[in-house]
Amino acid sequence: MAFLEEPIKKVKTIKNYIGGEWVESKGEIVDVVNPANGKTIAKVPVSTKEEIDSAVAAAQEAFPDWRRTTPLARSRLLFRLKELLEENFEEISRIQTQEHGKTIDESRGETRRGIENVEVACGVPTLMQGYFSEDIASGIDEWVIPTPLGVFGVIGPFNFPFMIPLWSVPYAIATGNCVVVKPSSEVPNSQNRLAELAEEAGFPPGVWNVVHGGRAVVNAMLDHPGIAGITFVGSTPVGRDVIYKRCGETGKRVIAQCGAKNFMTIMPDCDINRTVAAMMTSFFGNAGQRCLAAANAIVVGDDDAFYRSFMDKVLEQASKIKVGYGLDESIQMGPVRDKEKKANIMKYINAGVKEGAKLVLDGRKPKIIGDYPDTCFVGPTVFENVTPGMKIGAEEIFGPVMSVMRAKNLKEAIEMSNANPYGNGHSIFTQNGKSARDFQYNVVSGNVGINIGIVAPVALFPFSGMKDSFFGVLHTQGKEAIRFFTESKVVIQRWF
Amino acid sequence: MIIHTASEGMTLARKLENDSAAFYETLAKKYATDAESYLTFTRENKKNIAQIDRAYYGVITDALEGGYAFNLETDKYTIQTAISAKAKYADVLKQAAAMEARIIAYYTEAAEQSRALMADVPQTFLLVVKKRKTRQEKLQELLEKA
Fold first, then answer.
1. What is the pLDDT of residue B116?
2. Cβ–Cβ below 8 Å for B62 and A454
3. Which domains does chain B have, with CATH numbers?
4. Is B68 in Cβ contact with A317 (below 8 Å)?
5. Which residues on chain A are in Cβ contact (under 8 Å) with B57?
6. Does the pLDDT at position B119 exceed 90?
7. Pick from A330, A456, A458: which is nearest to B3 by CB?
8. Where in chain A is the domain with CATH 3.40.605.10?
9. What is the average pLDDT score of chain A?
10. How confident is the model over A339-397, as pLDDT tens digits?
């Protein structure tokens, strides 16, 4: 089958986009490496505090005029951006594969999900409307006006380089705010291409800024008094102990979407074939590097024959997954993002073996399709006899590792899921409505799936999360994002 | 070769449409009396590609099982588009009918396999099947006339 052309052909040093200008950074330059073939595809700066200051200043300068731009006019620019994203859909998708490693189907899926957020934000003229009460007392009226706050910082993760900043940015700017985006320095190309298209769409200088870098940039954003709020997607330790805490200290609004350990509850009445197909994508899609990736499968009941037939099907499918470079269309699983992440996954697999779990599919030395170094590849890995107390059953691995557990009944399965500190995306697979209802009612999880492997809310709905998976109040996407990026101004009026 | 991913399935669909379009273009040049019918087929093929792409790019999301959408043996769907210099018109029409049967078989099987995994894609495949069945009738008419 076809091997798709790489969109990035020359190694360029990525620039920051500040105040409508492409600006070279004075910071240190580091390589961006394609995890599939080990080739350097770009060089990215670790920008300085001064450069963040400059981006925030540009955004602050742009804010008054942008706020005065009508919601309809702001929406038209978003429509134009949407058209440009559709026109460049394939290129954007291939960039993601080249810099992140995910398969081309996964990248296209990410692109579509990103565009959907732009589409929803296009509805800002109605989404942002306030409300009005006549005669709250005789002759006195009262109404609420959602108003923008100023400048927001958007900190993106490495696992969805294109889509995740779009959970925030379209809503922030649609509501009249300006943004400073800090993409993951491991995968900066997608956001730079997006900023180029935003520039082409005609957003005024300073409305949409991109500054590349690492911890120093994040710290500068967190401390900056000119930033009204932060959205962040990343690990729980950083989200909870750095982002959420520091935003509290500096009086910023915050959405911190964090880590996960997602449980799939498999009822004995499930449709095995369809359940296993959903399992494959959920556990091994994006090489397990999703905050909604399944990590633990709990098979319910003492029916050993069912358990065996389920596991046989899982192993048959998982062992056939084709691992390689995602621009080869036949590939079903790409590499993990870098060798450090691979080493971390290996550490967990080794810990699982040591703790006594049964390694029934070993992905430590995967068969790679094509002539690529095995630096970042991990094959599908399946453990049986896992208990919730084992490291592999309890902690976030962020790799293609399936830990299979058993529970006596649904109640016990839900208790096992709820005992874990994370609550991001739990699912049940069943044909029974009552089981499904009991599950969705009792499970403590921000996103709940019923016969769904990856419980990723579409842009109309908030991307939720509970417990250690989320810190904040409102969520990204949809109406909640509109609320997050606006302050309610209440007006009470009386005329003498 | 067996294909599994949605991307492979779409590429094969595009290839079948493009190859069969090229075949009909050749026929249009070679058999001028029926050229309009063949050129209509060619135009329809291009529309089919646009429709299939629209369905795929419109519904593909990372939450669908795109990597596991199909389990199709591609050898079953290879089509014969080279026209033998010695072939009579009736033989060529039979070749076209055989080609259409294979393409219909592909879309039918692909629609069935991806029904639960790819949302609007199977529906589009079945629309193409419907159009191609009408095409088969037209080819039969031409054969009876030949």
1. 79
2. yes
3. 2-145 (1.20.1260.10)
4. yes
5. 89, 108, 112
6. no
7. A330
8. 12-258+469-494
9. 97
10. 999 999 999 999 999 999 999 999 999 999 999 999 999 999 999 999 999 999 999 99
A109 closest CB neighbour out of B11, B61, B116 = B61
With bands split at pLDDT 50, 70 and 90, how would you rate the model's confidence at B61? confident
The pLDDT tens digits for A368-382 are 999 999 999 999 999
Could you confirm whether A291 is annotated as catalytic? Answer: yes
Which ipTM score applies to this complex? 0.92
Q: Which CATH homologous superfamily contains domain A262-450?
A: Aldehyde Dehydrogenase; Chain A, domain 2 (3.40.309.10)
CATH architecture of A12-258+469-494: 3-Layer(aba) Sandwich (3.40)
pLDDT at A195 over 80: yes
CB-based contact A181:A191 (threshold 8 Å): yes
> Mind listing the pLDDT tens digit for each residue in A267-283?
999 999 999 999 999 99
CATH 3.40.309.10-classified regions of chain A: 262-450
pTM exceeds 0.80, yes or no: yes
